[in-house]
Design brief:
Elements: H1 2-15, H2 38-58, H3 62-65, E1 66-71, E2 74-81, H4 84-95, E3 102-109, H5 115-134, E4 143-148, E5 151-158, H6 161-172, E6 179-186
Parallel strand pairs: 2-3, 5-6
Antiparallel strand pairs: 1-2, 4-5
Helix pairs in contact: 2-4
């Protein structure tokens, strides 16, 4: 009975996590290697869902406009809110999440950037995503990329120091990038990693 219950729980978390950084076998497009243990992935997924539901209570549209990534208890927030007070409130909620180790907030106030900057940011992100896919030096594609005002924020897990260095170099070589702000953790740096 315990085995059946465990399998049902596992299926529930994997079916609800198409947007997570966990291994995505059913999509047919994105098969990534996630070096986190299953327990770490479940803990991160629970933190993400918990935070998303609490953000929903501030304003329902924030459940869609705010992106949340959780890796090893580290929360990465991006997106837009209407008021500065909401940005503070969302960041505070992230810090209050059980098990959080750190919070990085790239949330912007809606209306603070123009179409030209937004288009440039999308182009920069697309160039880096393409470079990561095409290079042979990056074995893992476990990265979330966010570009705001030509600053690239990279959040993810690298298999080793060489991969981390390569990802940062690729970002720095993209035209019009002002600054690269990496939050790239090595597999060996994960809190409960036993590799």
């Amino acid at each position: 009975m315990k085995k059946i219950f465990s399998i049902i729980i596992l299926l529930f978390f994997t079916s609800c996590s198409l947007s997570s950084s966990a291994t995505r076998f059913g999509t047919g497009v994105d098969i990534t290697f996630d070096p986190r243990t299953l327990g770490m992935q479940i803990d991160d997924e629970i933190m993400q869902k918990s935070l998303k539901s609490r953000i929903f209570l501030i304003d329902a549209k924030y459940a869609v406009t705010i992106n949340i990534e959780v890796l090893d208890g580290r929360i990465f927030l991006s997106g837009d809110v209407d008021k500065p007070e909401h940005k503070i409130k969302v960041t505070k909620l992230a810090w209050e999440t059980k098990g959080v180790r750190s919070v990085k907030s790239l949330i912007t106030i809606e209306g603070q950037s123009d179409f030209k900057n937004t288009a440039q940011d999308v182009l920069i992100t697309s160039k880096l995503r393409t470079a990561l896919i095409l290079t042979k030096k990056t074995l893992s594609r476990n990265y979330t990329l966010e570009t705001i005002n030509q600053n690239i924020y990279i959040f993810g897990i690298a298999m080793d120091a060489e991969e981390k260095k390569e990802v940062i170099n690729l970002a720095n070589n993209i035209y019009n990038v002002k600054e690269v702000i990496p939050s790239i953790y090595l597999v060996s740096e994960l809190s409960r990693n036993k590799f």
